[in-house]
Amino acid sequence: MDGDSEMQEDAGPTFDMTLRATKNRLKEYRDERKYVEPHTRIVVKVSIFGDTHEALVDTGASHSFIDTSIVSRYDLSVSKATGFIGLADKTVIPRIGETEHLEVACGRNIVCAPFEVIEQKYALSIGMDLFYRFGFGITGLPDPEPSHNQLPEPIPDEKPPSLLSHLTLRRPLSLSLEKRNSCKTSDP
Length: 188
Hints:
By secondary structure, the chain is of the alpha+beta class.
């Protein structure tokens, strides 16, 4: 029994140190996630309640997200949610919840949709669920597989024959010169 009590006494401070270390690592992780190289991301200006914010266009995300600071700033209503969110770096974080439909303007497009709440650098991350609704698009990518919807390869243009070649085909130049010379010699 004395061994067990010694273990419990030792487990207390160790557990506290582990918990503190985990909390510190979580804070470091959150700080790291908030730093993003600006030149390697597609960022657009969006308007929420008339205020301008930056939104990350994330074509690798299936859903769109809103930062917790924006939720707090505008006192947005959030429906609590259970489950987890898998991030691109393979990290899994617990869900916080989802906002009610929020009106967001980008350029001339206005989208009204719910956003998943997470801590992130940008006010919003626009995922593929809202990508096309905002009027965004991706062009110029090769089609990885032949498709029945794919346009056929264009037929190369053929150069039409020139006027000179058309005349030459009808009357060879050498004949014309011979006729001209014969006409001159036949005149007295």
